[in-house]
Amino acid sequence: SFSTPRFRRVLLKVSGEALMGNRQYGLDVDMVERVAGEIRGVQAMGVQVCLVIGGGNIFRGISGAATGMERATADYMGMLATVMNALAMQSALERIGVATRVQSAIPMSSICEPYIRRRAVRHMEKGRVVIFAAGTGNPFFTTDTAAALRAVEMGCDALLKGTQVDGVYTADPKKDPRAERYDSLGYLEVLSRDLKVMDASAITLARDNNIPIVVFNLHHAGGFAEVIHGRGPFTIIA
Ligand code: UDP
């Protein structure tokens, strides 16, 4: 009953927290499997999919720095955390028959491929899901920025951010019952109102390269496929 997909190639940003499910730390296997199922559904529609996986469920550079560790070192630990999540996602996808490749921004040749832009594009053309690990490979960045960067490099039609809520709200909907969801926003509105969507460098990169950002609920079953068909609820930033 679905219409033709609205996007040909997309990048899905999955935060580490999303993979935590209801736990306080680490990976929730059910959640990883659910997200893998969502990805398979979209890929089966003929849409090319790549992923950027966060690491906040395991380690964040900021927290490490707060304990006295050098920030850059702590950030490298955070990037390593994203590699662990990427491998977990790869495993879950392959178990349900989706061909994948993990590419790390920090070369780790015995575990996965190094990031090679043209090769990543080729993988997607062949129907493989490419999972980008280790963020941008640089400390002082986030996986949000990595997601915007890879979406631009891959020539994606959209950057989809799967979150715990179904879009961007005027206030935190979990705390304020009057909070309302925006259907659409401009990049500059997000920046000037300091709305917590993605960090400013990610928004700027998307804006400079005209890539729409779609924020939707990754916990809502079938949500990813619906967004691909332009069905809500979601917030589109363009
Ligand atoms: N990180 C980094 N450079 C990058 C991407 C990530 O240094 O390009 C580090 C940073 O310390 C960050 C951690 O990796 O805290 C985990 O990534 P992030 O916090 O973006 O994960 P998410 O919030 O999406 O789970």
Question: What ligands are attached or bound here?
Answer: uridine-5'-diphosphate
Dominant shape: globular
Q: Which sequence of strands runs across the widest sheet?
A: 4-3-5-2-1-6-8-9-7
CATH superfamily of the domain at 9-163 and 221-230: Acetylglutamate kinase-like
Written as H for each helix and E for each strand, in order along the chain, the element string is EHEHHEEHEHEEHHEHE
The N- and C-terminal alpha carbons lie at a distance of 28 Å
Beta strands, count: 9
Return the CATH topology of the domain at 9-163 and 221-230.
Carbamate kinase
* Percent range for β-strand residues: 15-25%
Highest-level CATH class of the domain at 9-163 and 221-230:
Alpha Beta
Instruction: Please tell me how large the radius of gyration is.
Output: 17 Å
Secondary structure class reads: alpha/beta
Main location: cytoplasm
Subcellular location: Cytoplasm
InterPro entries: AceGlu_kinase-like_sf (IPR036393), Asp/Glu/Uridylate_kinase (IPR001048), Uridylate_kinase (IPR011817), Uridylate_kinase_bac (IPR015963)
Binding site for ATP: 13-16, 56, 60, 163-164, 169, 172
Give a brief description.
This protein is of the alpha/beta class and 238 residues long.
Structure description:
With 238 residues, the chain is an alpha/beta fold. The chain has a domain at 9-163 and 221-230: Acetylglutamate kinase-like (Carbamate kinase). It has helices at residues 29-44, 61-66, 71-95, 117-125, 143-153, 187-192, 200-208, 223-228, and strands spanning 9-14, 48-53, 100-104, 113-114, 129-133, 158-163, 184-185, 213-217, 235-237. A 9-stranded mixed sheet has the order 4-3-5-2-1-6-8-9-7, sandwiched between helices. Helix 1 crosses helix 3 (71-95). The longest helix has 25 residues, at 71-95. The chain is globular. The chain starts with 8 loop residues before the first strand and ends with a strand. The chain binds uridine-5'-diphosphate (UDP). Uridine-5'-diphosphate (UDP) binds at residues 15-17, 54-56, 60-62, 75, 78-79, 81-82, 135-136, 138-139, 141-144, 146.
